[in-house]
Amino acid sequence: MRAVWLREFGGPEMLVPGPAPDPVPGPGQVLIDVAHVNITFVETLFRATGFGPFPSAPLPVIPGNGVGGVIGAVGPDADPGLVGRRVVTSTGGSGAYAEQVVVDATAPVPVPEGLPLDEAVAVLADGRTALMLTDAAGLRAGDRVLVEAAAGGVGSLLVQLAGAAGTRVIGLAGGARKVALLPRWGAQVAVDYLKPNWADRVRAEIGGVDVVFDGVGGTVGRAAFELLDPGGRMLSFGLASGEWADISEETAAERGVTLIRPTPTPQQLRAYTERALAEAAAGRLRAVIGQRFPLERAADAHAAIGSRATVGKTLLDLR
Ligand SMILES: NC(=O)c1ccc[n+]([C@@H]2O[C@H](COP(=O)([O-])OP(=O)(O)OC[C@H]3O[C@@H](n4cnc5c(N)ncnc54)[C@H](OP(=O)(O)O)[C@@H]3O)[C@@H](O)[C@H]2O)c1
Description:
NADPH:quinone reductase; GroES-like_sf; seven-stranded mixed β-sheet; six-stranded parallel β-sheet; alpha/beta; 15 strands; globular; binds NADP nicotinamide-adenine-dinucleotide phosphate; ER; Quinone Oxidoreductase, Chain A, domain 1
């Protein structure tokens, strides 16, 4: 089958297309003919350094963790009635940049009728994450909610979910092109945080904030923390800047801010995935597919993400 291999950690050019053995489903497993692969930011960190939440797979490895497609075959002891189902699934941390994947028959999540597969793949990881974060934040109508990297994969969904919860959303993004997108997803205030004094601009527009969704970390995350009023909640879930915001419990307590770090069980993660698909099928959550590349151009997709050129979700298309 066609696949993309990572043979050494390093730049995007380390992602090289090449053949891989056709996988065969074993007992209790299913084979999925992949139509689309989602790429998450953390996969670019893994490619560059080996860092990441994935179980460490020895190199060379087929990277990637999220696909959607059609079940093409089942192994012994798996229900043959599954063949032909449209599904999305995580692949256990690796193996997704490929034409076919094999997973346990219990892993795939059915795609609701009417929801295109590419949109389902686009909300698979980001929708699950955004729903988990908005639940954990306990959003209340009228809250002022600051979303960093608001034009990104998770960010564009956080803006939508927070807006739908009746909050006032302040979206932060890098550059005029991205900032211009934020109001259409529900941001009331949209600020370019590549400009100096962006935090003063937020203060002038809306005063302090009640919730920060911090997927960037570093100086941006720390400046966002400073905008929180007493009673505020800070959710740090990423380090796109290369560094966590690193706010200590003591510092937060002095400011009357709660640091929230959701730790979902696998069952909860699955439930969030199912909810994300249902919300997308109902039209309440809009997948933002900003870029698509053929599988063989995974390196170009990673380069685009690493240079902050992307908006919304980046997909690899196989069919
Ligand atoms: N996808 C998930 O399911 C998931 C799960 C857990 C955690 N996370 C974390 O959530 C954050 C967002 O993930 P995502 O997959 O949705 O990615 P993304 O937001 O689509 O891409 C990352 C964004 O971070 C911003 N950024 C700020 N400083 C950057 C820098 N120095 N280099 C590159 N980008 C920079 C860029 O937006 P601007 O140009 O607008 O600043 C960039 O587009 C990441 O920190 C990720 O690790 C994601």
